[in-house]
Amino acid sequence: MTPSERRDFIYRHLHEHRTVSISTLVELLNVSHMTVRRDIRILEEEGKVISITGGTQLNDALRQELPWNEKALIHHRHKRAIGKYAASLVEDGQVVYLDAGTTTFEIAQVLAERFNLTIITNDFSIIQYLMNKPQLNLFHTGGQVDKRNYSCVGKSAAMVLRSLNVDIAFISTSSWELEHGISTPHEEKVLVKQALLEIARRKILVSDSSKYGKYGMFRVCPLSYLNDIVCDGKLSMSVQQQLQELNMKLHIVNI
pTM for the whole thing? Predict the structure, then answer.
């Protein structure tokens, strides 16, 4: 494993476990303590992690997202359950927007068996998966291509969305919390998500609990702008209680 591959492994592992000890990384990577400490120091200089006593943890200030194919492997069981529940909120005949993401891809897999739906997305993986479902009406936003996340972003995608009416929009995110709301480390994504907030009749955040408590540089909106949040039961009870005080509905999916 090359040094860059080791650091990618550490960063990916932290997205799933939040913290990890140096001794655990030594065992997983089969390298020396000195090598692991050097990799952690480089990741810390890049702003991705923070050193703690005997190990490291993710930096809550998210600087970069994992690529789509790596995110799809993390917390898959939770994403699948969230996707199945979220799909149950869709009514026949609705125009549905699926934001780019691995959790919304799980929604797409359930909706693929439905009839009388129009599905709009900026995600190439979702549109490719649904392409052989003749009973669905499909629409892709187009726009600037985000190769890392297999999606379209930016002004062009947002402009297309503003010309449409959407009944129910499932919004994805890599980071959200009460103080910072929905945020992202990538400015181009903000325009698409904010356009959704304007055009969708019902706006639903779908996210597993591992993404709660993180924040990116670019703020999309406060959580109060949403109608619903669908999350798994690992979200702490104190956070659940605070969210339920907002003017929206919290759906907890127990795995």
Answer: 0.79
